[in-house]
Write a structure and sequence with these properties.
The chain is mostly helical and about 130 residues long. It has five helices and no strands.
Amino acid sequence: MKKRTRSKNLSDDTISIIVQLLDGWASKLTWDHLISAIDFRINQHYTRQALSNHPQIKSAYDATKQRLSDSKVTENIASIDNQTSTIKALEIENNNLKEENKKLLDQVARWVYNAYAMGIKIDELDKPLKVVD
């Protein structure tokens, strides 16, 4: 395994690049992920301690963590609102189906009474339908 050489000290330009990198960050943020991204972007490897010792980087890191955390909360609230709307719609649909079922049961009861009053037997009502070509 090749031993790493010490990266140059953090300059104002390098700090600016790291802060810009954090400003555009959209995925899970950890110090290890940030270190890998810096290594990929500017081919320099810094430790968590070296990065967090710079107030601008630490502040940008904390702000990004907060922003990502807030967006998760917002996504969760939106998801809960969407689920609540779905539940309400399903409750309305369920109530409508219950009402329709009650009306159909009332209609069947009417038909059974009327069939009985006209002297129609149950086996006549249960006869299969004729096949139509």
